[in-house]
Amino acid sequence: MKVYSSAECDINLLVKTLRTREGTARPDVAGTVADIINTVREKGDKALFEFTERFDGVSVKSLEVGREQIKKAFESLEPELAAAIEKACENITAFHQKQRENSWFESFDNGIFVGQKITPLERVGVYVPGGTAPLPSSVLMNVIPAKVAGVSEVIMCTPPGRNGMPSPVILACAYLTGVDRVFSVGGAQAVAAMAYGTETIPRVDKITGPGNIYVATAKKMVYGVCDIDMIAGPSEILVIADEYANPAYVAADLLSQAEHDVLASAIFITNSENLIRNVMTEMDRQLRKLSRKEIITKSTENYGAAVLVESIEEAVKLSNLIAPEHLELMVKDPFSLLGSIKNAGAIFLGEYAPEPLGDYMAGPNHILPTNGTARFSSPLSVNDFVKKSSVISYSEKALKSIYKDIIRFAETEGLDAHANSVRIRFEGENK
């Protein structure tokens, strides 16, 4: 992990380096994904069977996983794991229920009626990665807010394992969260199938969920055909710590994100030079015991940083510039800094709120903006699964009171038909 001093180097160079992690701009990947999408559009299910055999190395008899198989996967869970998942479901559901909005309408004595109608999406597709590191928590974080929002149908695509079936724990989570249909399809071809529909997989209104560079590129390409949640980049964590912070905790939390990917970013900002030394020592000690040490080493060497600043206030300013996905405030009084944080996907306050708490159990969504997009975007929420329609009704009297103003606007913009649409209703008034 590189060590920087804000007094001796241009911190903007660090921010620029982090922005180079964007993973969906490779021409070779874009070309491959475009071909996959076009093939799925043309050949439908046949293309999905062929791609599954080519990319996943298995031949599946059916694209859809039966309801009985999904139920059996849940029933086969170890009781302790099932209890932990159920507890997480409860917390995530409770949090997202507070995000629900209601339609609203307002009427006035002069005959004006306006409002906003909120309608859940009809059908949503959730992509859940499988492979060597299945992510059951992704099922919870995508499906639960959709269900809370009132989405009529939630389908899920997830790649098959060597036995031709998706991960049992992913299927178990699908059962718990009420996924309506599950398909054993992965990669860019799954995204294409959900966006355009095939003989078996229905077309959806929106696709959510994480994936590798091929999945992310496919989501980018089908946006407009359907909606997507976001283009999530490699994971990142930023820890602001003062001299009161426990170096072992800081080190552990940095390592927890660095293990995701060689492109993951772990940054530590402090006003204590002594803490930097102690955290570095702890990272070396803890790393030796971790199974993904090779990934962590590459991640921290290329995108890790310890930054020494003159004050915690300066640390906050730098954090707002980086706009991290996960921000931990490991300082003596973390709540005193909360008002100063402008850009962050999720904010963790205090030494007993480690980032994995948010990944699995606390309740807030762990699908967060990355690569600096926390400057303008938000975590996945119930609002991502509804659409809003404006409602307008005017009486003749109400329109008459402002129709000349509307005509002036329309004529100023050179839109005669717009003006005529209003004028024709009051032609008799001008005779």
TrEMBL record:
A molecular function GO annotation: zinc ion binding
Active site as annotated: 325-326
Pfam families, sorted: Histidinol_dh (PF00815)
A Gene Ontology biological process term: L-histidine biosynthetic process
Family annotation (CDD domains): Histidinol_dh
Cofactor note text: Binds 1 zinc ion per subunit.
Keyword line: Amino-acid biosynthesis, Histidine biosynthesis, Metal-binding, NAD, Oxidoreductase, Zinc
Catalytic activity: L-histidinol + 2 NAD(+) + H2O = L-histidine + 2 NADH + 3 H(+)
UniProt cross-references to InterPro entries, sorted A to Z: Ald_DH/histidinol_DH, Histidinol_DH_CS, Histidinol_DH_monofunct, Hstdl_DH
Positions contributing to Zn(2+) binding: 257, 260, 359, 418
Any single Gene Ontology cellular-component annotation: cytosol
Gene3D superfamilies tied to this protein: 1.20.5.1300, Nitrogenase molybdenum iron protein domain (3.40.50.1980)
Pathway it works in: Amino-acid biosynthesis; L-histidine biosynthesis; L-histidine from 5-phospho-alpha-D-ribose 1-diphosphate: step 9/9
Enzyme Commission numbers on file: 1.1.1.23
Domain of life (superkingdom): Bacteria
Residues reported in the UniProt entry to bind substrate: 235, 257, 260, 326, 359, 413, 418
Binding sites annotated in the UniProt record for NAD(+): 127, 189, 212
Cofactor(s) of this protein: Zn(2+)
General function of this protein: Catalyzes the sequential NAD-dependent oxidations of L-histidinol to L-histidinaldehyde and then to L-histidine.
NCBIfam families linked: hisD
Family: Belongs to the histidinol dehydrogenase family.
Protein name (Swiss-Prot/TrEMBL): Histidinol dehydrogenase
Lineage of the species this protein comes from: Bacteria, Bacillati, Bacillota, Clostridia, Eubacteriales
